[in-house]
Amino acid sequence: MREPIVKLCGNQSLSDTAKTASSKASHLGFIFVKRTKRYVRPERVGRWIRKVRPRQKLVGVFIDPTVEELEEILHFVPLDVIQLHGNETVSQLLQIKEAFGLPVWKVVHHQDGGLDQMDIFKGVADGFIVDSKVGGASGGTGVRFDWEAVPAYRDAAFDQGVPCLIAGGIKPENAGELLSYQPEGIDISSGIERENKKDIGKIQAIMKEVEANVASIS
Ligand SMILES: O=C(O)c1ccccc1NCC(=O)[C@H](O)[C@H](O)COP(=O)(O)O
């Protein structure tokens, strides 16, 4: 049975990181996109990681980063995965993979042509995240999409031999519904927050839903 991928994203403080790290999630995410509400400074994240020592894999979220920017972040934070949330091209992904030797997850927004986007990155992306498209926002919107589309994305990623996480508006109250579509992984940010801080009760509630559905997402 494969362990479900659960990424708890948008950690903004030592306290957030301690709460998400105390869970059974597999990945913790940090937003390195300047001028967005969950942006965190890499040197701070580095300090939190040294204190908390999470057992989870660390994911850095970026929009159209340069190799130099990534180099700077990696100097402070030992990322395990680079998540690209912007308009990056295949050649940019290849350049980043070559420069750092880290897995790169490409975000595809759920909209017409979402599956074609996944096809474009076939053999290059090491994983996909399918997120809601909400106006000009890139992510962290707290808005879900029509999950009837989930099996098509899941199967397309499966055919490529890479994981696919579903993101956008997942919360304890609706996680069971999403998990019934058997995604390989889920990515949550707003749904585990209360007043912009991660909430241990919501984290535990999400993880309880995952555990209850573990057979269906493995
Ligand atoms: O979270 C943000 O503020 C953000 C800003 C810019 C680009 C990406 C961002 N988040 C990426 C994520 O991986 C979120 O976990 C994902 O979009 C789901 O967010 P939510 O709907 O809040 O659960």
Automatic annotation (TrEMBL):
The keyword Isomerase applies. HAMAP family: PRAI (MF_00135). This is N-(5'-phosphoribosyl)anthranilate isomerase. It catalyses: N-(5-phospho-beta-D-ribosyl)anthranilate = 1-(2-carboxyphenylamino)-1-deoxy-D-ribulose 5-phosphate. Residues 7-208 form the N-(5'phosphoribosyl) anthranilate isomerase (PRAI) domain. It comes from Halobacillus litoralis. It holds the Pfam family PRAI. Keywords: Amino-acid biosynthesis, Aromatic amino acid biosynthesis, Isomerase, Tryptophan biosynthesis. Its EC number is 5.3.1.24. It is an enzyme of class 5 (isomerase). Pathway: Amino-acid biosynthesis; L-tryptophan biosynthesis; L-tryptophan from chorismate: step 3/5. Belongs to the TrpF family. InterPro entries: Aldolase_TIM (IPR013785), PRAI_dom (IPR001240), RibuloseP-bd_barrel (IPR011060), TrpF_fam (IPR044643). One of its GO terms (biological process) is L-tryptophan biosynthetic process. One of its GO terms (molecular function) is phosphoribosylanthranilate isomerase activity.
